[in-house]
Specification:
Elements: E1 8-10, E2 15-17, E3 23-27, E4 34-39, E5 44-57, H1 88-94, E6 100-115, E7 126-129, E8 135-139, E9 143-148, E10 151-160, E11 170-175, E12 182-187, E13 191-196, E14 208-211, H2 221-225
Antiparallel strand pairs: 1-2, 3-4, 4-5, 5-6, 7-8, 8-9, 9-10, 11-12, 12-13, 13-14
């Protein structure tokens, strides 16, 4: 257990930013350790979680005496006679080197990157990592951003819903589990959009669009049609 976010205050808008975690997800990378993405309403953080051995220095016996060359009473220098010389076997066996002894293994969390100031108007509700282990998307109600874990200050806008042009809002977004160029997002109007970054970077016009039409409309149709979450099938990556 560790503290990912703390309560902050936005001086420009005079509002408090809660430390409440909105979303967490694992980031797959080939290096050692595990990487975790976590976000509150405004800030995304990348954490490295790994195991570390705690070691201590071995205690040395205080009664052990350190050997030194014999000196003559009248001379401050060591005697040059053969009796005063040390054999290699005696000197190496008498010297004691301290050792590092592992006593326990503990879990360490280390912050690797902070992705901030990219969603100033609306709170973040979705983050999803790509299968390439280097990119991920974050989404609020009006836009979706594409990030690279190596460049925390740079984000690319790939979906944007202007409030002047449409009243449709983004509710959820998720990357394809195997194809790093495809992602899907759902809206409050009941649309599920599948986009391919290989075809275009601006994905306001999706590659495929689906909507479930109810046979009869009621006063609750618009509320029930809103997409709250999307998941790809774990057994078939062509189903969601």
């Amino acid at each position: 257990e560790f503290q990912s976010h703390e309560q902050e205050f936005d001086c420009l808008r005079s509002v408090e930013i809660s430390e409440k975690i909105k979303k967490i997800c694992w980031l797959s990378q080939p290096c050692s350790g595990k990487y975790l993405l976590s976000t509150n309403d405004k800030t995304i953080k990348l954490w490295k979680i790994y195991q570390k051995e705690v070691k201590v220095v071995e205690e040395i016996d205080s009664q052990q005496q350190q050997l030194s060359p014999s000196r003559s009473p009248s001379s401050p220098y060591p005697q040059s006679s053969s009796s005063s010389s040390f054999s290699s076997s005696t000197s190496t066996s008498s010297v004691h080197f301290p050792k590092l002894i592992p006593i326990q293994t503990e879990t360490v969390t280390k912050p690797k990157a902070i992705f901030a100031n990219a969603h100033p108007q609306f709170p973040i509700h979705s983050i999803s990592p790509s299968s390439d282990g280097e990119t991920f998307i974050s989404a609020d109600t009006s836009r979706i951003l594409l990030w690279n874990v190596n460049y925390s200050s740079l984000a690319t806008e790939i979906v944007y819903f202007s409030a002047e042009e449409t009243d449709e809002e983004i509710r959820t977004a998720i990357f394809h589990p195997k194809n790093c160029s495809q992602f899907a997002f759902g809206t409050d109007c009941g649309f599920v959009n599948i986009c391919d970054l290989r075809k275009r970077l601006n994905c306001n016009s999706p590659t495929h669009c689906f909507k479930y039409e109810e046979p009869s409309r009621t006063i609750f149709t618009d509320i029930l049609a809103s997409i709250s979450d999307i998941k790809w099938s774990p057994t078939n990556d062509r189903q969601l």
